[in-house]
Amino acid sequence: MKSFIEKMPKAELHLHIEGTLEPDMMLALAKKNEVSLSYKNNDEVKSAYQFKDLQSFLDLYYQGMQVLQSQEDFYQLTWAYLERCAQQNIIYCEIFFDPQAHMARGILFETVLDGIEQATLQAKEQLGVEAKIIFSILRHLTESEAEALLDIAIQHKSRLIGMGLDSTEKGNPPEKFKNVFKRAGEAGFYRVAHAGEEGDASYVSGALTLLGVDRIDHGNNAMQDSALLHELKDREVALTLCPLSNFRLQVVSDHKSHPLKQMFDMGLKVTINSD
């Protein structure tokens, strides 16, 4: 079975490119860009990957991305991920990136996008892996900041497949971004949102009804609402589940308690992703 799964063609629809930064690359880029990290070697970086919740992961996630500063850095990061895709016979992927986290450090949206896109174009030609790019709004920031980001993204519409919403759900419900998602839809962007990983079922229903999303990223807590589950099934809304990530971030206590199997048995459109 393992061999069969390894060889079968696959797609990954839920992947944050900054989160693919491996310890070796993190340390090498820190040295190149003269960024001071609290980790001195691979073992120290790996030991930091013991999380108690999503926020503790995000703290490390944002610290690690400080080493990403140039177009070449983002190219190297993305190319390394796409090479791993080819090794696992992942032939299609959709890549999230968090431009606001980089722009806050003085890095241009275009610098990040240029590096990621350079790798995706090369991967299609040399590896046979097709990759699309989704820019994500950080939901802990303001709606006006999200609107400003959308203004920039619209200038690069032909290079981006859609707009996402990520970062911590707590205190940042879908309705906060209703207007920006409406504008994104009018601009022709595919719309997706993280919902129901930390937030309850109302975050999932809100993403559907208020944001008009085409897909739910995570969506675990839809299990709290039977009417919502029927709606997801009837509308054939895809859910990009991330069971291993959920376990590592203690969203679920063990693999058996993850709702993937139940959702599949209910006939929901579920996909398995790394996050």
Describe this structure in words.
- This protein is α/β, with parallel strands linked by helices and 275 residues long.
- The protein has a single domain (11-272), classed as TIM Barrel.
- It has helices at 2-7, 23-32, 42-47, 54-64, 71-87, 99-103, 109-126, 143-154, 178-186, 201-209, 226-234, 243-248, 260-266, and strands spanning 10-16, 90-97, 130-138, 162-166, 190-195, 215-218, 238-241, 269-272.
- An eight-stranded parallel sheet has the order 1-2-3-4-5-6-7-8.
- It is globular.
- It starts with a helix and ends with a strand.
CATH class term: Alpha Beta
Write down how many β-strands occur, each being a DSSP E stretch of 2 or more residues. 8
CATH level-4 homologous superfamily: Metal-dependent hydrolases
What overall geometry do the principal axes of the alpha carbons give? globular
Q: Report the average pLDDT across residues.
A: 95
In which order are the strands of the major sheet placed?
Answer: 1-2-3-4-5-6-7-8
Question: Mind telling me the C-alpha Rg?
Answer: 18 Å
Percent of residues in beta strands? 15-25%
Fraction of residues in H or I helices: 40-55%
The main sheet comes to:
8 strands, parallel
How many angstroms does the end-to-end distance come to? 23 Å
- Give the name of the CATH architecture: Alpha-Beta Barrel
**Would you give the CATH topology?**
TIM Barrel
Number of DSSP helices? 13
Low-confidence stretches: none
The structural class is alpha/beta
